[in-house]
Amino acid sequence: MERSIDTVRETPHWSYSAFNTYLTCPMRYYFRYIEHAEAERTSVSIPFGRAFHAVLSERAMKGADYTVEDAKEDFSVFFKGEAEVCEKLTYKQDEDYLFWEQRGCDMLDVALAEWTDDYTVKSVAEAFSVEVPGLSKPLIGEFDLVVTDGGDETICDWKTASMKWPAGKADRDLQATTFCYAYRQLHGRMPMFRFDVFTKAKAPAHHQFYTYRNQDDLDRFVYLAGQIEKVVNTGIFLPVESCMNCSECAYSERCKAAHRKAG
Ligand code: SF4
To answer: Of 211, 210, 197, whose CA–CA distance to 110 is shortest?
Structure first.
């Protein structure tokens, strides 16, 4: 029986998101994954991204009969639902809920006009849970979309981004490595990986980035994952302060007070 991502999340696990959070700021990892602290604020990009992603899943599952009007209608419903359950939603200056609802619809015009995956879909929202040597908990996640092309399999991941990705980003991306590792464990074959990046600009655009991982990349991932678990077990979580890290951090007040609490 296929499991959903909610089911595999029910037991202790590792995820790409946890690894990435640790690597960008161990103290944020501590607040989110150890302390389970309440978010002090939530950027609108979180519910926006979830709603946009949910609409693309609908498109992948329902096929070409799913029109852009269906997509926009669903987006409004999903975005409203996601925004309502977020704690202390924040917007940038001169932006509000209606601004982002319209921007989502503009992005869907592009996404559906450039859709390429109708006849090759192998799975949509395929949850996984695999063992990784050296980790005490399984690695879990969800493949947004898997397509086949001439017998070769490609994992596709949908992203919303404020700007076009720079050259080389996909080749260094840990998510692609993590997901290729999981796919290889589950299916015994090395897939290709494709990021579909939708920019949230005034004139939205869609770019595809293909990337490939080899056995050495997967071996390095196993090493990195094991090292992260070892360091997490030491209980030392240092802050990594930077404009990029901290500007939208959901725990910045806790972080500012951490040294006082430690005494
Ligand atoms: S405010 Fe910055 S340094 Fe502090 S937890 Fe957040 S990202 Fe890390």
So the answer is: 197
> Given CA atoms 85, 86, 88, 91 in this order, what sign does their dihedral have?
negative
Domains of the chain, earliest start first: 5-262 (3.90.320.10)
pLDDT digits (tens, 9 = 90+) for 78-120: 999 999 999 799 999 899 999 999 999 999 999 999 998 887 8
Is the predicted pLDDT of residue 263 greater than 70, yes or no? no
Q: Could you tell me if 131 and 185 are in contact, meaning their C-beta atoms sit under 8 angstroms apart?
A: yes
For a mutational test of ligand 1's pocket, the pick from 21, 23, 24, 25, i.e. the residue with the most ligand atoms closer than 8 A to its C-beta, is 25
Alpha-carbon distance values, 196 to 25, 87, 158, 208 (Å): 26, 28, 5, 5
Q: Is the pTM of this model over 0.85?
A: yes
- Residue tagged 């655009």 (tokens): 205
Are 195 and 102 in contact by the 8 Å Cβ rule? The answer is no
Q: Is 252 in the pocket of ligand 1 (CB under 6 A)?
A: yes
Contact 139, 13 (CB under 8 A): yes
The pair of three-digit structure tokens given for residue 73, joined into one six-digit string: 């209608």
Name the amino acid, one letter, at 151.
G
